[in-house]
Design brief:
The chain is mainly alpha-helical. Helix content is 78%, strand content 0%. The protein contains four helices and no strands. The protein has helices spanning 9-37, 41-63, 68-88, 101-124. The radius of gyration is 15 Å and the shape is globular. The relative contact order is 0.17.
């Protein structure tokens, strides 16, 4: 984008949608973690790093037109990823100490709804 070239539509969808979705997830996960494990400045600071990348994703989603096919594939990938992560309990770097598995399921369901909602909103544009 910086050099004025049109990016690949799939690359744009996979750069914008997941970062926006994980920004929403950070706003749910980190307060939940801090409620279970007491306030932690490290977790509080991580919200801002995720927000920095997430806001870039929202900016791309708002400013650039992304094809419906590319968005659908990115949404399908994210939803499948959420299901696999939940079922296999491989959450990457997330520390789930003190957080009930049901709470994680609810968070993933909310995140899935956010991704589907973003997809529907962007397709109407």
């Amino acid at each position: 984008l910086y050099h004025g070239k049109k990016p690949n539509r799939f690359l744009l969808a996979f750069a914008a949608l997941p970062s926006a979705a994980y920004f929403a997830a950070a706003l749910i996960y980190y307060p939940t973690w801090m409620a279970a494990n007491n306030f932690d400045w490290l977790a509080f600071g991580q919200i801002f790093w995720v927000a920095f990348y997430g806001l870039q994703g929202f900016w791309l989603l708002r400013r650039k037109s992304i094809s419906a096919n590319a968005l659908n594939i990115a949404v399908a990938f994210l939803l499948i990823s959420f299901i696999v992560q939940y079922l296999s309990q491989t959450y990457g770097y997330l520390d789930l100490a003190g957080i009930d598995r049901t709470v994680i399921l609810i968070e993933y369901l909310i995140l899935g709804l956010i991704v589907i909602g973003l997809n529907q909103r962007l397709r109407r544009r």
